[in-house]
């Protein structure tokens, strides 16, 4: 059977996002939720179990927060919490405009749209250049998945281009290794102003499991300014799509 015939029998496969509310597949971990009321010790056991210090305990009971910028969705906190205070839901909405908005206690502050002037300049299209700044290829694979027949990123007017000279902004993955810092800076400067920078994945946001090592720069923001943070390890394509469309003002709802 030829490929066109196979596609014909498969029918319409593109999902109805964002018109239809989507949930993460059952085998994928969505946004983590922390019930601070269940931790009499202030969730310190959960914090001790986290390999990337993503659980922040600033005081006594009820003060714990989850930093999605550091979280690698490994479930060590779930297994290490005797009170069962942390669970992973199926909500894909996690992208934020600022680094501070990724530290959760209750709810989440989702990404706001770009300024009106910037949106008018972009029109209904967005051209992006991907920079792999030392990633493990997991985030890159999810970015590639955005172009398949299911997610079909191009239907929203968003495309990846080969040259920064043709781009409106950069999508950066990886913790920004020492060997990639200069390349990232030069690529950023090659994009005409005003330009966007999108940090994808825990490594690009905070350094991930490599945070603090001398060979990395603990994320993109230490090298160039960032306009959108998309957490995950790696982020699901739905999380990426949601963040991009919120940045472009195509989605304005809030989490419940």
Outline:
By secondary structure, this protein is α/β, with parallel strands linked by helices. It is built from 8 helices and 10 strands.
Structure description:
With 256 residues, the chain is α/β, with parallel strands linked by helices. 23% of the residues lie in helices and 15% in strands. It is built from eight helices and ten strands. It has helices spanning 3-10, 44-49, 76-80, 116-122, 138-145, 181-190, 202-206, 237-247; strands spanning 32-34, 55-57, 64-67, 86-88, 103-104, 126-132, 158-160, 169-173, 196-200, 228-230. Strand 9, helix 7 (202-206) and strand 10 form a beta-alpha-beta unit. The termini are far apart.
Keywords:
five-stranded parallel β-sheet, 256 residues, alpha/beta
Alpha-carbon Rg, integer: 19 Å
What percentage of the residues does DSSP assign to strands (E)? 5-15%
Apparent shape: globular
Q: How would you classify the helix and strand content by structural class?
A: alpha/beta
DSSP strand count: 10
Order of helices and strands: HEHEEHEEHEHEEHEHEH
Return the average pLDDT rounded to an integer: 89
Largest sheet: 5 strands, parallel
Runs in which pLDDT lies below 50 for 5 or more consecutive residues are: none
Helix content class: 10-25%
Distance between the termini: 46 Å
What is the chains' assembly state? single chain
Number of helices: 8
